[in-house]
Every structure is written in C-alpha cells, then in structure tokens.
Specification:
Blueprint: H1 3-22, H2 25-48, H3 55-74, H4 76-91, H5 118-152, H6 169-174, H7 176-196
Helix pairs in contact: 2-3, 2-4, 2-5, 3-4, 3-5, 4-5
C-alpha cells in the first residue's frame, strides 16, 4: 500500500466514525438542547460585546436571560417537549430511534439516571444539567459586578446622602486598576497644565 491509500483509508475510517457519532441519540438531543439554550445566550453575548454597553444595562440583560432560563427549568417538561420533537425530526433521516441507553445499577462512569421513557431520560441527563450549568455560570460571572454596581449607585445624587464613603469601598477595590489609570492620567494632565502656565 502506498502512503496515499493509507491516508485515504484513515480519512474514510475517521469520516465513518464521525458519521456514526452524529447519528447517536445523545448527540442529536444534545445538538437540539444547545441550539435552544445558546439561542438565548447568543443575544446576551452580542450585547456584552457592544461598544455602547454599560454595566447597568448588561446586568439588566443578564437578569432577563437568567429569568427566562429559570422559567425553562421550572417548566422543564413543556420546555423539553419542543426540543424532543425537533430531535426526533433530526433523527428521521438517519433512521435513528431515540431510545433509552442500557442502564446498569452499578454504572458510575456515565449518566445513569432512572427514567420511564426516553424523553424523560434525555431531559434528566442532558437538558436539566445544561440549564443548571448555564444558569450557574451566568450568576457567578455577574455576582461581583452586581455588588459593585450596588456600591457605585451610592454616587448617584438621589442616593448619595443615604450612604457613607465606606459603602463605596468594594467598588473601588474591584475597579482599582481602572481608577489607577484615571489617577495617573489626572496627575499627568495637572503636571502638563501647570508647566504651560
């Protein structure tokens, strides 16, 4: 065999393995769950990358996305019903049945949740853990900013008389690197301004 034949055989084997993996029920359901879940977070990602975005609006948008995802979690049966229907349509061309995988009571190396139907199994093993992970990540990612935003709100004229300077300290510590740049810029401007006069 020449090198080209070996390369072609390896490429064909790799393509065949990929084709078989794509036809697996786990993959088909996961693809639909990702499509549904990330369609909501995609808009948030675009919003956060916008030049005009400020922290207050970003936090508000994040809270909206979290609320929608929490609602999906609360109504997991209804939310997953549409995803399940789409996954079944996606499985149609491959003649793949979305069936329960073999379960073993002693299984510890993969998901082994008890379920009465394939839909319930995939909801418990893929959909709910995905939502929990995304929700946890969004809440954790913005937790520090949430408290800092509260602290920065003490500078608003409507609230400034209600707080002391110590209430502002957590925000000053969190954004210290930005404030140092501002202080440095201010010092340079005052030195340059005084030498001109």
């Amino acid at each position: 065999m020449c090198a080209d034949e070996l390369s072609d055989a390896k490429a064909a084997a790799t393509a065949r393995m990929l084709s078989l993996a794509i036809q697996q029920p786990d993959f088909l359901v996961s693809a639909r769950v990702l499509s549904d879940g990330l369609s909501m977070t995609h808009r948030l990602a675009e919003f956060l990358q916008s030049v005009q975005t400020d922290l207050l609006h970003a936090m508000s948008y994040d809270h909206d996305v979290v609320a929608v995802l929490e609602k999906k979690c609360e109504t997991a049966d209804d939310s997953f019903g549409g995803i399940w229907t789409q996954a079944q349509k996606l499985a149609g061309p491959y003649d793949t049945e979305l069936v329960l995988p073999r379960l073993n009571i002693r299984q510890c190396n993969r998901v082994n949740v008890p379920a009465g139907s394939p839909q319930e199994y995939f909801k418990r093993s893929i959909f709910i853990p995905f939502l929990d992970h995304v929700l946890g990540d969004l809440k954790e990612r913005f937790a520090d900013h949430n408290s800092a935003l509260y602290c920065l709100s003490t500078l608003l004229p409507a609230f400034i008389h209600q707080y002391s300077f110590d209430d502002l300290m957590p925000a000053l510590e969190m954004y210290d690197n930005l404030l140092m740049i501002t202080k440095t810029s201010f010092n340079l401007n005052s030195i340059c301004g005084s030498s001109d006069g």
